[in-house]
Amino acid sequence: MSIEFIQNILVILLSAYVVMDNLGITIFNYWAVTTGMLVGLIMGDINTGLLIGGTFQLMSLGVAGLGGASVPDYGLAALVGTFLAIRTGSGLSTAVAVGLPVGLLAINFDVLVKILNNFVAHKMQRLAHEGKYKQMLLWGWIGPIMFMLKSVIIVTIIVTVGPGVIKSILNIIPQWVTDGLNIAGGMLPVLGIALLLHYMPAKKYLWAVLIGFVLSTYLKVPIIGVSIVGAAAAILIYQSKAEEIVTSKEKMSSLSIINEGDYDE
């Protein structure tokens, strides 16, 4: 059994573990820099793993799958890119050239898995109403397993066949399939935001929603900039309420002193 075969198996197992870990106890964060480092450790070149993982981590800054949005899988891109770069000895350029298409391909798989998970959720709900709790728990594993397979299938193909297959798959997929998945991917964020607003005090802080909308839509401020403005507003509100509490306590203590003086008289 060659060292390359063992490395292939370990990389495939790692692609499965990091996804399940991210959906569960989270020992390793599913960040690009983390997956790149772990693949570098397996392949015997941790410095290259950190370099490639850090590069993809920088690409992912400010990108978040909020609500139900499907975004490029930079963790998977770093995993694949690091493996190929170290295996072929070609460096960062190959990692980026192959890793980015893989991360973009994962968007379509992510949308498909989220759609299928809706059926799983309804099945679990029906089993719960019927009192079949053991079956419900078994069905609960299907969702994480599908997310795991999303990464494992891609990594297995690349590890066993080669990087050219991913580009071939992207060219083979019909345009109408890609367009349909893109439409579904555009609807999921809207649904996610609507659900978040339903449970958040949006009416109370409508001014904050409007400020964020104006900054993002009209002034073209990036997500990080909007987040900084939101954090600053939250700090101001917190400080203002803290001062109100202190002032209220001082008034209460002064009133109690006055009342005690009245009783003494």
From TrEMBL:
- Taxonomically, what lineage is the organism? Bacteria, Bacillati, Bacillota, Bacilli, Lactobacillales
The subcellular localization recorded is: Cell membrane
Q: Which UniProt keywords apply?
A: Cell membrane, Membrane, Phosphotransferase system, Sugar transport, Transmembrane, Transmembrane helix, Transport
For this protein, the parts annotated as crossing the membrane are 9-31, 37-56, 63-86, 92-116, 137-161, 181-199, 206-238
**Which protein, by its recorded name, is this?**
Sorbose PTS system, IIC component
Please tell me the species this chain comes from. Answer: Streptococcus mutans serotype c (strain ATCC 700610 / UA159)
Please give one Pfam family short name.
EII-Sor
Q: How does the record classify its membrane topology?
A: Multi-pass membrane protein
UniProt-listed GO biological process terms: phosphoenolpyruvate-dependent sugar phosphotransferase system
PROSITE patterns, per the entry: PTS_EIIC_TYPE_4
Name the predominant localization.
membrane
**PANTHER family attached to this UniProt entry:** N-ACETYLGALACTOSAMINE PERMEASE II COMPONENT-RELATED, PHOSPHOTRANSFERASE SYSTEM SUGAR-SPECIFIC EIIC COMPONENT
Query: GO CC: one term?
Result: plasma membrane
